[in-house]
Amino acid sequence: MPRTTGRKQQRVNVPTTNPESYRQRAVYLPLTDHLIQRMNDRLLSQEDRFLGQYLLPTKLQGLSNDVQDKMYAANKNDLTDTIESTDDEMLR
């Protein structure tokens, strides 16, 4: 636990009485908050990445032209074929 001085400039200044609560407030809670925020940013906001689930055999009935276009747009950097040939492969 850091010493209490008149001016703290380079570390978190949280009011605590023991080292365990200082570690929890200064390190653990901010780290947990950061990890949750990053997971939300990477997993929940990128919905176009998960359109490939429509290619599973149980979901083929929900594969519309709009969904096919979104899948192609989301993955066009990785594909070398045109959109027409990619659509044919999706329906096979």
User: What ranges have pLDDT less than 50 throughout 5 or more consecutive residues?
Assistant: none
Total domain count: 2
Radius of gyration: 25 Å
**Structural class based on helices, strands and sheet pairing:** mainly alpha
Share of residues in helices:
40-55%
Counting DSSP H or I runs of 4 or more residues, the number of helices is 3
Overall mean pLDDT: 76
Specify the overall morphology.
rod-shaped
Order of helix and strand elements from N to C terminus:
HHH
Largest sheet: none
End-to-end gap: 63 Å
Q: Indicate the proportion of strand residues.
A: under 5%
Q: Tally of extended strands?
A: 0
Concise synopsis of the structure shown:
By secondary structure, this protein is mainly α.
Report on the architecture of this protein.
This protein is mostly helical and 92 residues long. It folds into two domains: 14-45, no CATH class; 48-91, no CATH class. It contains three helices and no strands. The protein has helices at 19-44, 65-75, 83-91. The longest helix is centred in the middle third of the chain and has 26 residues, at 19-44. It is rod-shaped, with a radius of gyration of 25 Å. The model has no long low-confidence stretch (mean pLDDT 76).
Indicate the topology.
Layout: H1 19-44, H2 65-75, H3 83-91
List keywords for this structure.
92 residues; mainly alpha; 2 domains; single chain
